[in-house]
């Protein structure tokens, strides 16, 4: 045999693609070439693979007078990363007839070291999901990726630490034939939030705590503003403790994003991610991009929280880039090598010191940074004022409040789940059609809202956001209808002094 084909896979942006690895051998002076839009890491695989084959007990491709052509198909997808090393090595050994096995239905993923050891790769979870979708029976992965791969049910996962162990498993004619153990399905162990900050650790600030409860229950965007040192950052960090665990599908979705981005610690993410970039962070690091577009902080916060401290200190174009994700729950990153739509369904929690009301220069600077459309897209603006020193010096134990608030959030989210049935939607994500179908206002409540909207000069977007917010408040209070008090509370969160 002088030809062989095996299967591997790679991620491109956040999508997974099955890649055919074809090896053709022919007589002639030694050469080793790779075709099919290989990136630098893929081109360098010939040296890693050659050394790994030699150190696994076979003749190195470099020791033979032969022409080796590696084709990675489809050819119109840029091939990036070292994930093809294992597949290339096995395809070469098949073509030289050093080993024998049927590659049908098998997928191979992993980077090879020079001594034949398998190294972990990024993006395993979406690659396994794609393999299952495409009908593959078995996937071979590095040991470090096994637990993450085992999250996908209905496909056999085998892990190994070396190339030679995989060869012994596949090649029944190998003199040291030995079977690998199938990876058991990974059971999700839901984590319990263990932040050092509990809402009870923050004295007073009851209105801010109430606002954050509402924001968590309906996934509403919120800005905390007030003088320095009043607890805004502590409140924001305690906020993540009252969010419920991710659902199974959300766990897979969020874990896939972080696996591809290389930010995954552990095998799976079960808690909503909390991302807190510094205000000096670059535009690309937040929005995403690069020569080959990669997700930024906005996407890494998907299904979780994006906390922007010192909100007006971020670059203006970074703040303006929030328009699309705050409205559409995704962000479109366009670069010369392509465009990609990244998911960005997060809760924005921002903290800031308000401009001095009598300082025209400071007010003008604020208005240049925080535009009207951004203000309009934030549901809640909560003032966090100074705390009486007597309150700070009171003796007694700090109560634990976060756990009780979390129960209220879970209860309100359950009501939304029942309302929207199969749709994974929260109140903040309701469309105008959803409002018509699911939210009924009595004439009295409607009159109050319309009069207030006229006095506050609310835009149509802000008008609908008030209704969504009132619906969440009603859910927290277990009220089937939006009542007068709910709409009045929702209205008080509009930013009168910034508009």
Describe this structure in words.
The chain is of the alpha/beta class and 499 residues long. It has 2 domains: 3-170, Ribosomal Protein S5, domain 2, CATH 3.30.230.10; 199-410, P-loop containing nucleotide triphosphate hydrolases (Rossmann fold, 3-Layer(aba) Sandwich), CATH 3.40.50.300. The chain has 21 helices and 18 strands. The strands form 6 sheets. Strands 11-14-17-10-18 form a 5-stranded parallel β-sheet. Strands 1-2-4-3 form a 4-stranded mixed β-sheet. Strand 12 and strand 13 form a beta hairpin. Helix 7 packs parallel to helix 17 (402-420), helix 7 (206-218) packs across helix 20 and helix 20 crosses helix 21 (484-491). The protein starts with a strand and ends in an 8-residue tail after the last helix.
